[in-house]
Amino acid sequence: MNLPESYIPILIQAGVAVGFVAISLLGAHFLGPKQKKGNSVKNQSWECGVAVEGNARTPFSIKYFLTAVLFVLFDIEIVFFYPYAVNFREFGLEGFFAVLTFVAIFFLAFFYVWKRGALDWDK
């Protein structure tokens, strides 16, 4: 196998990474604590000394996930304001109208979500 010299550091780094992962996984398996099987009180879940209520597999309301996704969506919007804030003088009036259009689209989306009741927790 005839590899160019530029590939050798990449292969060494990949080998070190795979070796580190293998050693970490094997070390955790053999050196880590062993749990006893069974339904002992020691293996039960506790949160700050309060007894568990219900099952951990209890489904969440879809409103929770919908609100989380909407938060991420509207939060990521802020990232797109940074380039405009840094270069707003260079963008001029055309850039201002582009950002205004961007904000208007997100406001329309926000009002749509609001009117559809996605942010209303009481329903």
UniProtKB/TrEMBL annotation:
Signal peptide positions (record): none
Keywords: Cell membrane, Membrane, NAD, Quinone, Translocase, Transmembrane, Transmembrane helix, Transport
Membrane topology of the entry: Multi-pass membrane protein
Gene Ontology CC terms, in alphabetical order: NADH dehydrogenase complex; plasma membrane
Record's keyword annotation contains Endoplasmic reticulum: no
Example of a GO MF term: NADH dehydrogenase (quinone) (non-electrogenic) activity
Task performed by this protein: NDH-1 shuttles electrons from NADH, via FMN and iron-sulfur (Fe-S) centers, to quinones in the respiratory chain. The immediate electron acceptor for the enzyme in this species is believed to be a menaquinone. Couples the redox reaction to proton translocation (for every two electrons transferred, four hydrogen ions are translocated across the cytoplasmic membrane), and thus conserves the redox energy in a proton gradient.
Family affiliation: Belongs to the complex I subunit 3 family.
The protein, known as: NADH-quinone oxidoreductase subunit A
Species of the source: Chryseobacterium formosense
